[in-house]
Specification:
Two copies of one chain form a homodimer. By secondary structure, chain A is an alpha/beta fold. In chain A, α10 (220-230) links the parallel β5 (210-214) and β6 (236-242). In chain A, α14 packs parallel to α16 and α19 (475-487) crosses α23 (571-581). The longest helix of chain A is centred in the first third of the chain and has 22 residues, at 18-39.
Amino acid sequence: MSYLDTINSPKDIKNLKINELKELAKEIRNAILNRNSTIGGHVGPNLGIVETTMALHYVFDSPKDKIIYDVSHQCYPHKILTGRKDGFITEEGMSKISGYTNPQESEHDHFVVGHTSTSISLACGMAKARDVKGENHNVIAIIGDGSLSGGEALEGLSNAAVLNSNIIIIINDNEMSIAENQGGIYTNLRLLRETNGRAECNMFKALGFEYYYVADGNNIEDMIDILQQLKDINKPVIVHVRTQKGKGYKFAEDNKEKWHWNFPFNIENGEPKYVMNGENYNDITFNFLANKIAEDDKVVVVNAGTPGAVGLTPERRVILGKNFVDVGIAEEHAVAFSSALAKGGAKPVYMVLSSFVQRTYDQLSQDLAINKNPAVILVFWGGISGADVTHLCSFDIPLISNIPNIVYLAPTTKEEYLAMLNWGIEQNENPVVIRVPSAVFHSKEGVEKDYSKLNQYKLMKKGSEIAILALGSFYSLGMQVSDKLKEKGIDATLINPRYITGIDEDMLNQLKENHKIVITLEDGELNGGFGEKIARFYGADDIKVLNFGAIKEFTDRVPLKELYKKYHLTVEQIVEDIEKIR
Amino acid sequence: MSYLDTINSPKDIKNLKINELKELAKEIRNAILNRNSTIGGHVGPNLGIVETTMALHYVFDSPKDKIIYDVSHQCYPHKILTGRKDGFITEEGMSKISGYTNPQESEHDHFVVGHTSTSISLACGMAKARDVKGENHNVIAIIGDGSLSGGEALEGLSNAAVLNSNIIIIINDNEMSIAENQGGIYTNLRLLRETNGRAECNMFKALGFEYYYVADGNNIEDMIDILQQLKDINKPVIVHVRTQKGKGYKFAEDNKEKWHWNFPFNIENGEPKYVMNGENYNDITFNFLANKIAEDDKVVVVNAGTPGAVGLTPERRVILGKNFVDVGIAEEHAVAFSSALAKGGAKPVYMVLSSFVQRTYDQLSQDLAINKNPAVILVFWGGISGADVTHLCSFDIPLISNIPNIVYLAPTTKEEYLAMLNWGIEQNENPVVIRVPSAVFHSKEGVEKDYSKLNQYKLMKKGSEIAILALGSFYSLGMQVSDKLKEKGIDATLINPRYITGIDEDMLNQLKENHKIVITLEDGELNGGFGEKIARFYGADDIKVLNFGAIKEFTDRVPLKELYKKYHLTVEQIVEDIEKIR
């Protein structure tokens, strides 16, 4: 019988003795490793926060007291203690429990969270709601893993400081972001660690917080002590807690960046269970940029705190040297910074995931597009996916493509991608965003080098009756649809639009001559997307338009195959839909 | 002959003596007042920054040295000193020179800027570009008026601190934001002012900056001294400068918030030249919310640093009391905060301008929409306008309406607006955003109280052949088109869609029975907007669709009438376009 067996809600740990809690901590670590080694997930952050989480639930009374996790990298121990341990023990349980906080899973979670830097703002709102309702409970935000450098967190911090009421912000300082810490904020955290929290030069005190330092946040007694002291405090406080990322698992302790998030692995040796082979756009992009920088010192690669996700490993960052800037989790800054790099005569290439580019709409519009600075942005992972609801990547086309002056390109092959990237870097006219495909295809024929004549679609196969506009990563789907139609005796026209941000009026007008139906295929949300612009263009014509893409909805870990079927994105469904209106 | 007569470029002030500079400062103030009293503009910020600007151009060599203004509230003296004084003297000049920095106006401007909090990030990019190119010059950011609390500024600050190279950030501290200062950052600025810059608890030093304090930034000798000392410095420095907002103009000194930005006024008595009468949505909204709060203490009005723009005067803020929260310029926080207020059981109403809601896409999506918290957001000023390019308000429909779970409503009358607002506050199902109309119309008949059956359009007049879907503030245009068509013997159907975020499939299908043409009218960008969804819906049908709205483009102070004509938004043009396809 393990201690974990006895834990079904937070109240079950309140009666454990310290040595029992320490045993439980080991069991929790094993459970975390069990889940992550089986289905993948955040390893290091969760191993580091075990004791802090136990102390929180030991001292506070969740869900009356509100515990709000930032970005949810660190929520596994919390899930284990709040009735969801099965998600860490059995495979069936794992499939039911997500890797992020979610109120639908438990009353101990208050928000669905998967983007960084939100916990302090959310805690402020919960605290203010408590105050206007005349209630009494603690509101606790837990933030770490580099989230503190995000604008939303800093806005929240400044506001939390003047809340004049109970709010307890736990800074989980494991000396790391997802990769290394970046920025002046971490300069100060380091100073505070080095002075055991005593340095006068303290950004939190400067903002007006009461400040407490815990030198070993993996010591559960110390954590319980400080939290008992602060429970029910009537003012905003910071608890700066030093923890060890990856604590208790040697591989994760030794290589903190690699073990931030992992695919399934063998616990014994830390080796991944599955090896991925073949070409991928991370390698392709790095190799191209490294060569480019060797030729031209003005090329600067920019990333905002997630270099690993786009293939910029520590070794590769060393190779890029001073021509690589990781600004930390600060996506807004990354866009403005890139715009100004371009204005100043450098050649920036900002690499970002589709889900996180959402942070930057106003910077794309104001700092970049209005100024028409020729920065390049590479959007990775764009497309319909089976991801967690907080990491969907199907919204970047509506987000980016409706901003004037931006040229948003959708390459279909490796060769086209590299040609577009090279052109984007060398041109001086427009901000260029490129939607990096997922699977790697190759062009059979040569690709254009120059994309400066905007909005010229490429006619890949000339046919009649039906025209297929197959955008970017859905170009291969377009080819399949074309093949299937051929089987039915229809010689369809196939077009690679290339430009997401504009209409090739000449080509679309020519299609009217001998086409009755135009279909669009896009790997993303239909609302506000590419296909609707085609539908508008043909609105007053006799030509019929069918748009294929994702419905406007948030989906949560729905398998891609299921989504494709739901959205009528299989070859068979598309052909059926076409036949219905022929 | 004035000193100003002799100033045609920055080098012309370099030979002036101190007493001559002081005379010139007076002339610059008169020029600022001359412009603002004639055509309106930012008064207080520009009057306060005169000496700092003169010292910058006295010490540094623009455009070699790069001077980058935040939000451009404070760029008038810079414009006057850089060859654009005519924009402050003659009416013809005023129409040519904008109120914001613009590289097309002058080589001394580096960015088109009109949103806050961008200068530090932009300066970082310029500095990094300088460094990779091996150049030597100074990069100077000037930030004030509350911009420092914006996430982008704080991200930039953290990154500037570790730049390890020349960057000079001037914090223009006039003890004000647009309204009062809000947040812990300003707690620290106050402490630093009170200690003459000597307090150890200094957020800038904590981040790693060298820090300098100037107690009287309106003393030109002091400003010249400090800048000469810092010119060509090889590290990031902060110059915290205390200035007086409105300096030299009594009315502006006495009422700093009122005189931040003004419509044309009489210089002698400070009275506005034109008085606006009649109903407006600022008053309507305040009156409703004040009554609502009197009934229900859980209603909380939220604003992010621009209360005056939405009619929340200081007097009204006092009336709202603890049920009003100005979070300062921190739009992202405002959305997350509102989401959490709703989660916590309060009833938040966040009031924001269309142009500034652009800052919050990710918070709308992640913090709010994924969580389905029933916060209410009121978007003011949404629509096509003759505004400066940085303050256009025609993008909010593409921005907001393609996010799942959000209910974006477009009321057409005061009665409908208040019914929707009341419903939004009382319901518990969805985040509700309301696009506040501009002109006030009244409903002749009653309006529904309950909008929980989503996406039900309202049939206002049943006709045939042509159906007009006239959204929100363009409903009156729809009525005019309907009347004009009647003159031509066509009895058109007129529909108030009410819901921007969804399709009324039943009604749209019914229209197929006896309509050949459906037109949509929307007061905003067509790309990604409302009408395209209608075009997609009818894509495979015989019905023809014409979408009317704005082209995807940035316009800069183009008169509304001209834009309407360009976009085919006059009644005559719309009817002509319809007749062309009948």
